[in-house]
Amino acid sequence: MPHECSILAFVSIVAAMGSSALAQPGVLVYDPGLGTLPTAQGWTLVDTPGEPAPTVSGGALHTGPTNINPRQYWYKVFDRPLYFADGVFIEADLEIIQSTYNPTSGGAGQRAGYYLSISDNSGRYVFAGISSSVLFLTATDTAPVGPSCPSVAFAAAGARRLFRLEADESGARLLVDGVLKLSMPLGTETTTANRPVFSDLSVVGAHTANLYALRTSAPPPICPADFDADGTVDFFDYDAFVICFEGGACPPGKTADFDGDGTVDFFDYDAFVVAFESPC
Rounded to an integer, what is the distance from CA 172 to the centroid of its chain? Predict the structure, then answer.
């Protein structure tokens, strides 16, 4: 069997690695200083017809005044897993000029004119609502103000501040200029997975704002040794490569030509072992 030549090395690698851990996420940045809208930097715009067109000037993304009923927001869907368990965030250097707040929205729950949101690979999600005078956290579309959807009075309008929404298995947190303002447990509802979202998400909210920078967690870069592309480097990657190398099924988009020279030979096997012994 071709892979027997490195089996001892593989055993020692597995022992050193222990149980596999999820890869730490990377960071995705939207920079208005480049002079382009988020769509030009890989974000998708959801825009109700009739909303004022967003603009970029002076190093800021200007949105609004949006109307009370339509929506205008950007999102980014990732093609690789993002996990709350690794600790994720979305952070906005943001000047709220005006943003509405509705504590009940017809009994359906809190709504604001501006949002930060992020969901993970399982579809769990958290929202931070930012209005001119109130901040809130929620992981449901229906719950009113309460322990699972906390809110706090906060004068957000008229100043440039750093809003940061964090989520991990212990719960979600909203920080402003590095100071914790709200926290809550994660919810159980699910929505579209693997996407950060920002701007006007609510059909009963409106805002005017300037966004100077946005940073958010993104799935880690693809690691060559992550042969099965599940976000981890472990025995399953080694096994998947060996099966592929020996002529069996390869993971989608993968080939046994690991070194990319157009042939499948022992140089590919050796190259994979080197990558596996030094994972990303």
Answer: 14
